[in-house]
Amino acid sequence: MTSVLPPTTLTSWTESQITAILQATTPIAFDEALENFLAPDAEITVNGKPLSKEQYKALLQKDKLQESSATVDFSGAVEVPTDGEKAGTVGVFFKSTIFKLLRVGGAEESSTLTSSLNVEISQFTPHFITGGGPGPVVFPERRVSKLDQVMVEVANPIILPGDNKPTPL
After folding, report:
1. What is the C-alpha separation between 81 and 105, in angstroms, rounded?
2. 67 to each of 26, 35, 132, how far by Cα in Å?
């Protein structure tokens, strides 16, 4: 017996994939999250510049080894399905606070990434996972075939313990 997982909306899929990428704490988790998000031949544009998948990965990984955690807050989204809930276009706006491993005077260093992201999601061949249940589970394959992102990351003011004013950067 095969069970099919119910599809999530295109927006919730996009938001969960972005969150997985930004909150990945190991190189393996980051690579897996990015591979689950982008098609192998995805067209990528960031801040008006075309990037290869490897260049986009390098951009996102730039300071990843110095991060301890991240929060992601989505403040708006719009989706236009083209094949039911299987494919379509999604636009999201989000902010992510990225906490660094480094501490300055005992205070946690952080930055805020603000981004508008538009993606075209395509349907790919499903894959099957077996084990742990009555039969294989079918996972519908969605991948981003086109990504257009505008983003900026800004260092947050540092507030030292016991101080009520931010320390200038």
Report:
1. 49
2. 10, 20, 34
Report how far residue 163's alpha carbon sits from residue 159's, in angstroms, rounded to the nearest whole number: 6
Tokens, residue 79 = 């989706």
Averages of pLDDT over runs of 10 residues in the chain (169 residues) are 61 96 90 92 98 95 76 96 88 93 74 96 73 56 95 86 62
- According to CATH, the topology of domain 3-153 is Nuclear Transport Factor 2; Chain: A, (3.10.450)
Nearest to 96 by CA among 78, 116, 66, 79: 116
Strands (E) across 47-157 are located at: 49-51, 67-81, 88-104, 107-129, 137-155
The residue extents of the domains of the chain are 3-153
Residue with tokens 């990504």: 147
Of 124, 152, 141, 125, nearest to 46 by C-alpha is 152
CA distance 67 to 72: 14
Query: How many angstroms separate the CA atoms of 38 and 164, rounded?
Result: 43
Query: How many angstroms separate the CA atoms of 59 and 144, rounded?
Result: 17
